[in-house]
Automatic annotation (TrEMBL), chain A:
It comes from the Eukaryota. PROSITE patterns: ATPASE_E1_E2. It is found in: Membrane. This is Phospholipid-transporting ATPase.
UniProtKB/TrEMBL annotation, chain B:
This is Cell cycle control protein. GO terms for cellular component: endoplasmic reticulum; Golgi apparatus; plasma membrane. Belongs to the CDC50/LEM3 family. It comes from Danionella cerebrum. Its main location: membrane.
Length: 903, 305
């Protein structure tokens, strides 16, 4: 950029990425700036990363639709069977139109096929109750009211932000119990994004500040006491190191009091009020280092007119003029500053990752420090090494001009700068190393462990560097000591001499062989985490490589790369994807979501960069973190802390799934055994569409008689109590892969419905072989028949639910017994009055008369018992299978385990 | 103050919202199920034996004897047939005497277009055979008195069905301008020539017929034998039954039959219930034994380990 000012020589300045203001930037320290907008509209990063919000549907709903198709088929086939049989039956002489039931002229004139069609439709109407329409209402109610339990949960309340969980959709409650893949953001989700200076090592001697946080050890920090471990390094070295920390950064100081809200998310808890000084930096690590130095007595006071001011231990102000900042970049992985002291010395301070510093310093210095660095790294700290170098005036002049030239170069600017930097940062001497901790969220490791125990695969998707991410993974126990890491990054790709594409395929094949083919066969159906010592794999991939995998070169077989990659990932307990762009995160989620078996995915994140991934996954969870509300607003559920995820999934998710799955199955079952007797009755009434039950019963069955108990069940059931669910994460696997809504349980429920329907109908049918059921010899008619069947039906269906209920609160009691009582009351009422608006008083005193017959009582009792008998028997005889029988015993409480305990 | 603000944000800490309502968690263990099955089984066997014996002791000739007629392959439960009636007529609403409801069609109007009362297929197909039972004593026929009272439901006779209000003290006048159902030999007000109070819609036989049978093979109560020498049952001897045959059944392959039976507390003779109770009862007992064996075996094998 050329700057022209009147009466001055045009100056040349370089423009680079550091001059770009990103969205959300706020202006400070100056009144105004001039800018040019570079990207607008759809080209902005926001727009490019935006994903359309699509309707999310849960797996349960898909199952419902499948079941619905089956029942629709049953309905249609029933209607077809009845219609066909009707016409076969009518073709017999005298059956079609007996003298006692003649047709009207209009009916006689109707065209035969039209009659058939209307008959078909009448049968459809007659049997339509088999389609549980009211289930949709109940499911919606269950979801709506059920979601309140998440909102209400006190465990999700975070006293810090004074908020609890937030439910943005109630459609996905049960999906929380089905999660197979968890995609988590790192910064702000796994970690607090709050760096803490832990220790440093100067010249091979360790300096550790014990009580980093007062609550850590119990005693409070009063004046930032520094505990130094003996022996110490020389004072000179020590101060040099601290000066280096104070100078080598790009931190800005924000004076206390001014615009506090903006900065306070970056300043941590400072020990003393007068030191309430805000530091602002692009990287929280730098803030941590500056603060660390402050604790050791060196305070960075700020940058004014290119002069950095430091207050040293003797409370003197030292001033350094900042000559150059050699910015950090991910390839060099270090940064430097060149400063000039008052005495005119020119110094270069450099800090960076160990791997990039060590080759540039004297080897004998390295040996003393390497040990500490490695130990710190394995403890999950982010380590940096600090080195310095004294520049002579000539050296500096060379550097000065070199840098200036490189910055102004229009072509290959970066390469030239890089070369210049590399040239400068050589021959330094190592002073020490630092260890900074990115503090994990509370209970992050426990949460992750529980989720893994529950059979979930955890993918960490982060924009961070690989090393940082890796250390976080270790800290969260996602990677363990024994985990074998499979790396697929730019670095591993460049190791080989061959081309990147070939190397990629080679590595993929190799990893595939190791992780997939040589791995012991995974038990089908159940996702098992290898418990007994067998090798665990962790997989690491970075953004660039992922792009390569997703969009393989030219002629290569695109699906091969993907499927290899997916298979490797599926066999790894943890996958770490670093250097991800927000849209890439969504891409990964999408890939897993659409992979074989279409597993249920969950994304959790706190920042705007996680939005696309939250929207993409089946369930999106936002953390009410410090990075604004974008994620929360776009999420399905929002929780204050990561640790709440455990209860959300293991307890709420599990319960919701069991509840709704049972609700769905129960609804189909109860409508099947409701309508089956009506279907069977057609065989005994000349296929004339005579309803078995009174119209009032037909309507009220689903609305009043049987809806409340199942609603109460689906809201309150805890087949296993919440504490046990939280303690035994493996219980979550019991319901994995939609276990309760697969075809087998569905078949079981359907068969049960058919069995009971047959029982109801034929039990009463045999009783009615002599319809004189009263002790005065009077006979019962068809409505009595229907009422007896219906009574047995209502009682059986309700008692079946009572058998399934493991958690009887007073609400369950009142719903179940209340429904039955209501049925009896309603029947008396309905049959007790001549209703003026009814054309026929079919049920007049039918119910009361039925109850006056001992036979009717006896048949009702035996039919209820007989219908429930197989259920009871099955419950008692069901044997817990598999190695986890002790836990599963809790799932099937009527098992031998309890037999044993009882007797 | 601050606490209040906080508590408004914080979710209610009640047992309900925290899903910690006190709950009863029943467990159907073997300790309950095995004895339970045994008790239920034994009880059922007891009831079953009682039912079965009762059913067996129901004799034809011990009093009071009930006289049923039965029809088979006769579909009183046709849907069209079932709706072919006008309840408003039957509850005595004379408005509907002039214009019967459409559901009665084609039994609403006769050929002179006079409305039929009672209209509809059910009324029209009223069973109109009559029976006379004689005991033959020394070659002479002695009429067995048949009691036509109390064969229909009490509520039907007293509440549900109503005759039209008498016009000039005569039921026949109330039916003026209407026609009798085609199949009927006499109009409704002359159904029972011997008993004035058994006419119109409140004829017991008519009410019995109007209560539609559930299945195509059914029986309906015709008379009770409660009077005179036969109150305690029909003594052994020769009897003769005179059938006034009016009712067509052959053209739809139907059959008629006559059943004499007495009833017990469980109603008419029906072996089904007794047998069902015996079977289910024994099933329960057998199952409890099986469970006990399985359980014992399992327990032992568990102890070995």
């Amino acid at each position: 950029m050329h700057i022209y000012k009147p009466e001055q020589e045009p100056a040349v300045r370089s423009l680079g990425p550091e001059n770009l203001l990103l969205k959300g930037a706020t202006l400070k320290n100056t009144k105004k700036i001039y800018g040019v907008s570079v990207y607008t509209g759809m080209e902005t990063k926001m727009a490019l990363n935006y994903q359309g919000k699509s309707q999310k549907r849960s797996a349960v709903e898909k199952s419902i639709n499948a079941f619905l198709c089956v029942y629709l088929c049953i309905l249609i086939s029933k209607a077809v069977v009845c219609t066909t049989l009707k016409y076969v039956w009518q073709s017999k002489e005298g059956q079609d139109e007996p003298w006692y039931n003649q047709k009207t002229q209009k009916e006689k004139d109707t065209f035969m096929y039209l009659k058939m069609f209307t008959d078909f439709l009448s049968f459809m109407v007659l049997f339509n109750f088999i389609i549980p329409v009211s289930m949709y209402v109940t499911v919606e109610m269950q979801k709506f009211f059920g979601s309140f339990f998440i909102k209400w949960d006190n465990d999700f309340f975070d006293p810090e932000i004074k908020e609890g969980a937030l439910v943005n959709t109630s459609d996905l409650n049960e999906e929380l119990g089905q999660v197979e893949y968890v995609f988590t953001d790192k910064t702000g989700t796994l970690t607090q994004n709050n760096m803490e200076f832990i220790e440093c090592c100067i010249d091979g001697f360790q300096y550790r500040q014990r009580d980093v946080r007062s609550e850590l050890d119990g005693f409070t920090v009063t004046d930032g006491p520094v505990h130094k471990l003996q022996p110490k390094a020389g004072v000179e070295k020590e101060e040099l190191f601290l000066r280096a920390l104070c100078l080598c950064h790009t931190v800005q100081v924000k004076e206390a009091g001014s615009e506090e809200t903006l900065g306070d998310r970056l300043d941590g808890m400072l020990p003393k009020p007068e030191e309430e000084r805000g530091f602002i930096a692009s990287s929280p690590d730098e803030v941590a280092l500056v603060k660390g130095a402050m604790k050791y007595g060196f305070t960075f006071l700020g940058l004014e007119n290119k002069k950095m001011k430091i207050r040293n231990r003797q409370n003197d102000i030292e001033e350094y003029s900042l000559l150059h900042v050699l910015n950090f970049d991910p390839v060099r992985r270090r940064m430097s500053v060149i400063v000039q002291t008052r005495s005119g010395e020119t110094l270069l301070f450099c800090k960076g990752a160990d791997s990039s510093i060590f080759p540039r310093v004297r080897p004998e210095e390295v040996d003393r420090i390497r040990l500490h660095v490695e130990r710190n790294a394995t403890e999950g700290y982010r380590t940096l090494c600090v080195a310095y170098k004294q520049l002579t005036a000539e050296e500096y002049m060379v550097a000065e001009t070199g840098l200036q030239d490189a910055r102004l170069a229009l072509q290959d600017r970066e390469e030239k700068l890089m070369a210049m930097y590399n040239q400068l940062e050589t021959g330094m001497s190592l002073i020490g190393a630092t260890a900074v901790e990115d503090r994990l969220q509370e209970e992050a490791a426990e949460t992750m462990e529980a989720l893994q125990g529950a059979g979930m695969k955890i993918w960490v998707l982060t924009g961070d560097k690989m090393e940082t991410a890796k250390s976080t993974c270790y800290a969260c126990r996602l990677f363990q000591r024994g985990t074998e890491l499979l790396e697929l990054t730019v670095r591993t790709l460049e190791d080989g001499r061959s081309k990147r594409e070939e190397r990629l395929l080679e590595l993929l094949r190799d990893y595939h062989k190791r992780a997939v083919q040589d791995a012991p066969p995974v038990r089908t159906g159940v996702v098992t985490r290898s418990w007994c010592g067998s090798q665990e794999y962790g997989f690491i991939i970075d953004g660039a490589t992922l792009t390569l995998v997703m969009n393989p070169p030219r002629d290569a077989d695109a699906s091969l790369y993907r499927s290899l990659f997916l298979q490797i990932c599926q066999n790894c307990t943890t996958v770490l994807c670093c250097r991800m762009a927000p849209l890439q995160k969504a891409q990964i989620v999408k890939m897993v979501k659409n992979s074989k078996g279409s597993p249920i995915t969950l994304s959790i994140g706190d920042g705007a960069n996680d939005v696309s991934m939250i929207l993409e996954a089946h369930v999106g969870i936002g953390i009410k973190g410090k990075e604004g509300r974008q994620a929360v607003r776009n999420s399905d559920y929002a929780i204050p802390k990561l640790k709440h995820l455990k209860k959300l999934l293991l307890a709420h998710g599990h319960l919701y799934y069991v509840r709704i799955a049972h609700l769905v199955q129960y609804f189909f079952y109860k409508n099947l055994c409701f309508i089956l007797p009506q279907f069977l009755y057609q065989f005994f009434c000349g296929y004339s569409q005579q309803p078995l039950y009174d119209a009032a019963y037909l309507t009220m069955y689903n609305i009043c008689f049987t809806s409340l108990p199942i609603l109460a069940y689906s809201l309150l059931e805890q087949h296993i109590c919440i504490e046990i669910l939280l303690d035994n994460a493996t219980l979550y696997r019991e319901i994995a892969k939609n276990a309760m809504l697969r075809w087998r349980p569905f078949l079981y429920w359907t068969l049960l419905g058919i069995f009971q329907g047959l029982m109801f109908f034929f039990g009463v049918r045999f009783l009615f072989s002599n319809p004189a059921l009263q002790d005065n010899g009077q006979v019962f008619g068809n409505w009595s028949y229907g009422t007896i069947v219906f009574t047995v039906l209502v009682f059986t269906v309700t008692l079946k639910l009572a058998l399934d209920t493991r958690h009887w609160t007073w609400l369950n009691h009142s719903a179940i017994w209340g429904s039955l009582a209501f049925y009896v009351f309603f029947s008396f009422f309905w049959g007790g009055i001549i209703w003026p608006f009814l054309k026929q008083q079919r049920l007049y005193f039918v119910f009361a008369n039925m109850l006056s017959s001992v036979s009717a009582w006896l048949v009702i009792i035996i039919l209820i018992l007989l219908s429930l008998l197989p259920e009871i028997l099955l419950m008692v005889l069901r044997k817990p299978r598999g190695p986890l029988s002790r836990q599963t015993a809790a799932v099937t409480p009527l098992s031998y385990k309890h037999l044993k305990e009882r007797c | 103050m601050k606490n209040e603000g906080e508590s408004s944000e914080r979710p209610d800490n009640t047992a309900f919202t925290q899903q910690r309502l006190p709950a009863w968690q029943p467990i159907l263990s073997a300790g309950i199920v095995i004895p339970g099955f045994l008790i239920i089984g034994l009880a059922f066997i007891g009831i079953g034996i009682g039912l079965f014996l009762t059913s067996q002791t129901i004799q034809v000739l011990e009093g009071p004897v009930f006289f049923y007629y039965g029809l088979s392959n006769y579909y009183q439960n046709f849907r069209k047939y079932g709706v072919s009636t006008d309840y408003y007529q039957l509850s005595g609403d004379t408005q509907y005497f002039k214009s019967p409801q459409d559901s009665c069609s084609p039994y609403s109007y006769d050929s002179q277009n006079k409305p039929i009362v009672p209209c509809g297929a059910i009324a029209n197909s009223f069973f109109n055979d009559t029976f006379e039972l004689y005991q033959i004593i020394n070659g002479t026929k002695k009429l067995v008195p048949l009691d036509g009272k109390g064969i229909a439901w009490w509520t039907d006779y007293n509440i549900k069905y109503r005759n039209p209000t008498l016009v000039n003290g005569s039921l026949a006048n109330a039916f003026d301008g209407t026609s009798k159902p085609l199949n009927w030999p006499r109009p409704a007000y002359e159904l029972d020539l011997t008993d004035q109070n058994n006419n119109g819609f409140l004829n017991q036989d008519f009410l019995v017929w109007m209560r539609r049978a559930a299945l195509p093979q059914f029986r309906k109560l015709y008379r009770r034998i409660t009077e005179g020498d036969y109150a305690a049952g029909l003594p052994a001897g020769n009897y003769s039954l005179t059938v006034h045959y009016n009712y067509q059944v052959l053209n739809f392959d139907g059959q008629k039959k006559i059943i004499f039976s007495n009833v017990s507390w469980m109603g008419g003779k029906n072996d089904f219930l007794g047998i069902a109770y015996l079977v289910v009862g024994s099933l329960c007992v057998v199952m409890s034994v099986v469970m006990l064996i399985v359980y014992a075996k399992f327990k032992f094998s568990e102890d070995d380990v």
